[in-house]
Design brief:
This protein is of the alpha+beta class. It has a domain of 182 residues: Heat Shock Protein 90, CATH 3.30.565. It has 24 helices and seven strands. One of its GO terms (cellular component) is membrane.
Length: 637
């Protein structure tokens, strides 16, 4: 699996950075006036959408203002933006370098410095200079992570951190990629905007990619971050994130050798964005070869071959790898050998080009770092002088601190009241959860006394009739059922396979007690069957409804009973339908323990809804066109 990073919209990024720059201001009145003039001019640029007209005005402002480095740096940034929009890329790059070099790095202008680093990274990336772009994005992200960048809009920081994290992941710097992704999640923690959700999904996918190990999906961290990304995506309707989301999940499952899941998300990624058909079919070719589905692989190879003109050097190497593997799988060793020779040749050519390109970029970066070090030495002297000036402002600071302390005390009182209210509410929800769990465990630990008595009586009758084999079979089913019931009683969730095995043991035992009284069938769709032992549901959720059908639905019927259990997945929600042909819900003969079991299951579904899983639901109705009852459960997975 292979895909290019950095699919986030450039226009959104630029808009956020501009907003960030406009929000930055200084303490002195001349600076405020100049900054307001500059921002007003740029607002006119955005409204008129004619950046060419603003270039002479910005050049004039830069010429007139050579003292305030913060304002000057901002003016250079705006000028670079206008030049880029006017398709003067080289001039834009040179002006952006000036914006970066003239600004002394300190606490007061960290936001502008980070923006300058980000802008340089964006321009380098536009030129496909990825080493240099990674360096500048990383520098901007370091400023945020170190706490020097205090923004009013966390989304702006999130965009910068995302680009830095993605580029470092692309260059196999997983330590930095994970560091910046975690910082992004921290900044967006309380932001509920759609863009923040978009960034949160990207951060969780980056963390998942960084936590893959030799066992692939056995790593719990991968499942944790995939689940978080999935939960966030359910609340998001932004079409542009679907491709990144699905292709990242496909890559994670592919590297974890979960080929069915990788195929599923690769197909969804292609539906979300059909513009890159070459890579879509290339990835499908790799999956089908690994699954040894050679006929489908042949179709995918033909589609890839039609679109070779769309590939770049990296994608073409991936295609050759898949082509070699496909030839080996077919036993065509001659074609595999020729493809391997072409692969070696192309790879060597690419490495030479990359090494040459990397050398040039690193040389340029070395000069840039040298300049940065010189600027850092000058900044130390500036900071020393600034420290002397700050001493004269001490009394003013004391007054401001006193006012701030008073405000902080009022704020703390307000937050304390709010905290106590939240604690009370959390305790109420926690107590309700404990109550439901205890009631459920109590229900699971109780076996119907009449049922156990009848089972023992049945065993006794078989022994007296000297039916040894039937007795042993009966005892085996009964012991397995009791052991599974006791085990499930201590678990909150259980995998679907274990739950179905338990129900089958229970039904077989009931059939031995009541020969010929009823039959049953379990029907699973393909997706459920493929993920049978991975899907988890609340333990002992289905048994009360099965028991109700047997003991009460079939009690007074003159015909043979039938139970049909259907399980299917739609939009990551497991739908379970339990149908019988019994007497339906009109009967009043409903014993207390069964009604309580149904009530507790209903309360468990309601509790899942309070946890934010609004798709969880339960409905029970009599069938309309036939006798019997139909129970429908929906459980997010």
């Amino acid at each position: 699996m292979h895909h290019k990073p950095l699919k986030i919209s450039c226009l959104i990024s630029i808009w956020l950075i501009i907003t960030l720059f406009i929000s930055c201001g200084g303490p002195s009145s001349p600076r405020i006036n100049q900054g307001q003039l500059l921002d007003s001019l740029f607002e006119q640029i955005k409204l008129s959408k004619q950046p060419k007209k603003a270039i002479p005005q910005l050049q004039k402002l830069i010429k007139e203002n050579q003292t305030d480095s913060t304002i000057l740096s901002r003016a250079y940034f705006y000028l670079s933006y206008c030049l880029l929009k006017n398709k003067q890329d080289s001039a834009s790059f040179e002006v952006a370098k000036k914006a970066l070099t003239i600004l002394p790095l300190s606490e007061k202008n960290g936001a502008q410095a980070a923006t300058n680093f980000y802008w340089m990274g964006y321009l380098e990336q536009k030129k496909e200079q990825y080493y240099a772009a990674t360096y500048y994005y990383t520098q901007a992200a370091y400023l945020i992570d170190a706490g020097n960048l205090k923004l009013s809009f966390p989304k702006s920081s999130g965009i910068i951190l995302l680009w830095a994290s993605q580029l470092n992941s692309y260059n196999n710097r997983l330590d930095l990629s994970n560091r910046f992704a975690r910082k992004m999640l921290f900044l967006l923690k309380k932001d509920t905007s759609m863009l923040a959700k978009d960034l949160s999904i990207s951060a969780n996918l980056l963390l998942s990619l960084g936590h893959l190990d030799q066992k692939g999906l056995a790593n719990d961290s991968v499942r944790f971050y995939l689940n978080r990304a999935t939960a966030i995506k359910k609340k998001t309707k932004l079409a542009r994130i679907d491709y990144n989301y699905y292709i990242s999940k496909a890559k994670i499952f592919y590297e974890g050798k979960a080929l069915d899941s990788a195929l599923y998300y690769q197909l969804k990624a292609y539906k979300a964005d059909t513009s890159n058909a070459f890579m879509a079919y290339n990835n499908l070719l790799g999956i089908y070869v690994n699954k040894h589905q050679l006929s489908k692989a042949r179709v995918a190879e033909r589609e890839v071959t039609k679109r070779l003109s769309q590939s770049d050097a990296d994608n073409y190497l991936v295609y050759l790898e898949n082509k070699i593997a496909f030839a080996i799988a077919r036993g065509d060793h001659k074609k595999a050998q020729s493809s391997f020779e072409e692969y070696v040749q192309k790879k060597n050519e690419r490495e030479k080009n990359e090494n040459r390109k990397a050398a040039n970029e690193i040389s340029s970066l070395y000069k840039t770092v040298q300049k940065d070090q010189q600027i850092g030495a000058l900044n130390k002297n500036i900071d020393k002088i600034t420290g002397q000036l700050e001493l004269n402002r001490l009394w003013l600071v004391v007054i401001v601190l006193f006012s701030g302390l008073l405000f902080a005390m009022i704020l703390l009182l307000f937050l304390d009241r709010r905290r106590k209210k939240l604690i009370t509410e959390n305790k109420r929800v926690s107590d309700l959860n404990v109550k439901l769990e205890l009631e459920q465990r109590l229900l699971r630990s109780q076996m119907d006394p009449h049922f156990i008595f009848n089972c023992l009586a049945g065993i006794r009758a078989l022994v007296r009739q000297e039916k040894t084999q039937e007795t042993l079979t009966y005892l085996d089913h009964f012991s397995v059922l009791m052991r599974e019931k006791l085990t499930a009683g201590n678990q909150r969730n259980i995998d679907l396979k274990s739950e179905v095995d338990f129900l089958e043991n229970y039904l077989k035992l009931q059939q031995m007690r009541m020969p010929g009284k009823f039959d049953y069938v379990f029907e699973l769709d393909n997706e459920v069957a493929n993920m049978f032992d991975e899907i988890e549901i609340p333990a002992m959720l289905l048994q009360p409804f099965i028991e109700n059908s047997i003991l009460h639905g079939f009690k007074n019927i003159s015909y043979k009973g039938h139970i049909h259990v259907l399980m299917a997945i739609n939009n990551e929600v497991l739908k379970i339908i339990i149908k019988d042909n019994g007497v339906g819900l009109d009967t009043t003969d409903q014993p207390t323990h069964t009604s309580r079991a149904t009530q507790i299951v209903t309360e468990r579904i309601q509790y899942l809804q309070t946890e934010g899983l609004g798709e969880a639901s339960l409905s029970m109705n009599s069938q309309v066109d036939a006798p019997g009852t139909i129970v429908t459960l929906r459980i997010p997975v």
